Amino acid sequence: MPIHEKSLIRPENLQTHDELVLDGVDVSGHWSTFIQSRVVTDYNEALEDEIAGLPGGEYIHRCWQCGSCTNSCTVNAINPDFNPRFWIYLIRMGMEDELLRDKDIIWQCVSCNKCTYACPRDVVPEGVMKATAHWLELKGHRPKSPSILFDEVFSEQVFATGKIEEGRTLRGFFKRSGQPLMQDWLVEMVKRMIRHLPLKLLTAMGLANLVRPRTRGWGPARAAIEEYVHEQEAKQRQALGLDELVKAAERNVTARNIADAAE
Amino acid sequence: MKDKYQKVAYYPGCALEGTGHAYNRSTKAVGRELGLDLVEVKNWNCCGAMEVKNIDPKLQTYLSSRVMSIAVNEMGFDTVMAPCNGCYHNLKKAEYDLATDEDSAAVVDRLSTKAGHATYQAGDIETIHALDWIMHSIGEDGIRDRLKNSLQGVKVANYYGCMYTRPRHIFPEKDQGNGSESTSEPHFMDDLLAAAGAEIVDYPLKTACCGGAHTLSDCDTSTKLVINLLRAAEAAGADVIATECPTCHSGLEMHQIRAEKRYDIKTSVKILYFTQLLGLALGLKPKKLGIHENISDAMEFVKERRLG
Question: Which residues in chain A are contacts of B66 at CB distance < 8 A?
Fold first, then answer.
């Protein structure tokens, strides 16, 4: 069965009849389940280009659907719905609505690179997963995932000081993702640490909280990085046509306001 | 044996100044004991870990290139050693990208010039892992010659994780036969700890993923992956999982506790850095190796087995 027909056998597309006669033939019983026919009209022909325009998605066009990525995938082994091969197929076909059904799990790629190791076509599926997760958020299909919030908290620290301090990253992440810091397992971990960790190390950890570790002479690197980051953000907005989308939305609002005023 | 590894530039990275403190300590202690010299890279910065690449991969390349540039251009080294898999991986990845991708090289050149340091040129320095460093400068025979306290009877599962071997193309020196490291069946840690007297168990998950990239942002996935790793090690009969990455190590420690609290799954396998095990075999005291600084407490185990 071609991979895109997976969607045809979803429960909502199945029709069951207890008693059914077709062309004079009784097809009741176990023949009574039918798959509803459908016509797909809403292709997003730009989808592959949009993903390819984001970092990591550059090589998606090379895929020949061998399935090595999904077969080797760490996350697929614990959640069969996590299917890189299927998503690459949907993106290349432009089947955006189908892709959006999985919008809340695509970010869960753990970057173990088993797919990239296994891929015979150098698609770099790990990169495609990151680009797709990023695309979903840039297009407003879902809020920022915990993964990207963590990446942002972490990267902001690196850009600012050249280094990270793990305690600060952890607190920053929990704050930004709206989670309590006092999670049972973290509390348990700290309890066990305090029980046997030497006082000297605990003091050093406390000090690192107060005095941020930083790379000496980092200032110019910071300025260069920040300038580059702004440029890249603008490029990505352009690749996805986000500025045009915003302008079109603004035009619609203005037109509606004028119409409302005229009434 | 490569004499040039006797003195190398040392890039500990951020984790080794935090949760991986014991790895830093044991790496330095083992180096001293083996007569190897580590000179820390001046004013080093974070390599970008698993995170900056998701903001922009070329920025990660720049961050790693800055470390290599300082080691070669300001300190005159031809080898930089990183004990952290993340740092090691990122420096290797930067090396590959700079050698093969003009756009990456252009971005790195632009950022380096603005930041006021020499642009790193691909091929100017060799990045090695702590495993390469000990394997190629001391080797298995060298460990056997210096053995003071054999790890005999200690059953070890060696866990290498993802970043040490994948993707293959950034590690051109691996899979070359003649005792080179393998990307599908890595064995340097197995070889060194076997030389130290340990009994190496057959561990099928040696390059499986611990979910380290999402250790906080997708805890349930990480815990499930870590449970697999811990249970497989116990099923293989291991007393200890030996690690060579601070992210894997603290991931295993944290999620061992989380599995207990959230899923009521208790495992008792110990988690130690390979440098800690090696140090014990070389006769170093547990405290010198930071064994008391690990989150999972292995001091009792070390005493019980008369390892130090």
Answer: 221
Tally of structural domains, chain A: 3
Distance from CA of B147 to the nearest CA of A (A): 28
* Tens-place pLDDT, residues A179-238: 887 788 888 888 887 777 777 677 776 666 667 788 999 999 999 999 999 999 998 888
Distances (CA, A) of B91 to A196, B11, B97: 35, 10, 10
- In this predicted complex, what is the ipTM? 0.94
For residue B15, give the nearest of B6, B5, B7, B27 by alpha carbon: B27
Helix spans in A66-183 (H):
68-72, 74-78, 84-93, 96-100, 114-118, 125-138, 146-161, 166-176
Structural domains for chain B: 3-129 (1.20.1050.140), 139-304 (3.40.50.11810)
The total number of residues shown for chain B amounts to 308
Of B75, B66, B71, B84, whose CA–CA distance to B14 is shortest? B84
C-beta atoms of B45 and A205 within 8 A: no
Q: What is the pLDDT of residues A77-130, one digit of tens each?
A: 999 999 999 999 999 999 999 999 999 999 999 999 999 999 999 999 999 999
> Is B182 in the A-facing interface, judged by CB distances under 8 Å?
no
